[in-house]
Fold ABC transporter substrate-binding protein.
Amino acid sequence: MKKIISLVLSATLVMTALIGCGGANSDGEPQAEGVESKDIIVGVSMPTKSLQRWNQDGANMEVSLKAKGYKVDLQFAENEVETQVNQIENMITKGAKVLVVGSIDGGALSSVLEDAKAEGIKVIAYDRLIMNTDAVNYYATFDNFSVGVIQGEYIEEKLGLKDGAGPFNIEIATGPLDDNNVVYFYGGAMSILQPYIDNGQLVVKSGQTTREQCATPNWDEKEAQSRMDNIITANYTSDKLDAVLCSNDSVSLGVQSSLKSVGFGTADKPMPILTGQDANIANVKAIVAGDQSMSVFKDTRALSEKVVEMVDSIANQKEPEVNDTETYNNGTYVVPSYLLKPEFVDGSNYKSLLIDSGYYTEDQLK
Ligand code: BGC
């Protein structure tokens, strides 16, 4: 009996030594509460540096993970699927224990993630779902359907559609077909707008209403601009345009350039209602200048904090906290997800939401 007790005690001591200590490790580096994180490599694979948000996402993840004592391998893939696959392969070779992946093409990673799974590596899909594989373990994102609903409701309210106003002309510009989020952004917005298209209060003169027709490859600003150039030339040389549903800020900037090039943005020809998403600095400036009506703020600090919590749980062999186990079927299974809440931002609330919260300084928005 004595022997058993002493065995249990020494096991407990070892466990405590292994997982019980927060504070600093022997190198004086900060260390996670409850985990020996010093030797754990976390691979963070971000899609591109070309958009403000992913730089913030990557930087936030790196700082928070390092503060908890993890080693971080942060890579950006410049929107090239092959680069992302190679970078993830490298992370696996280097011995990463957890991968955090903001995918470029959510359907193109099954094979490399099979390798990760074979090595016992846990994978967290960051912001965008990874499709058609069970090698992705968790998903952390904002409620993407709700992003679209916020945009749609903004247009509904500003045009007075609930009161029966109209008809108004509207066009739709969404994101690429390989980003699963677009299904939800577009779907959420159309859940509000489609009934008004059906009853004639909203008219899409281009006739382009499906997700395929309204896609913007790679979320590219220039692609959005040239598509809108064509739509305007064909439909709006004399007719007014009242609103453009833009699924994110880069698309919105492209649409704005197109509109301005044909004289929108003057007293005679005011900018239509224009939505966005991300509250990027250039777009908040456009909101202040009156060129863009609103954006959807997704606090990247909160998302990275949540993902760091997930990494910590995994490292401690605990189940990460999730709050949605129904929505995100990736074609293979419903991936346990944590959804954060997006918020609308426009000229009326950007100061409190973005400056008072410390997300941006006043100078950044000048
Ligand atoms: C993200 C958006 C972002 C877009 C373009 C989407 O998957 O959820 O926040 O604007 O990609 O990078």
Summary: The chain has eleven helices and twelve strands.
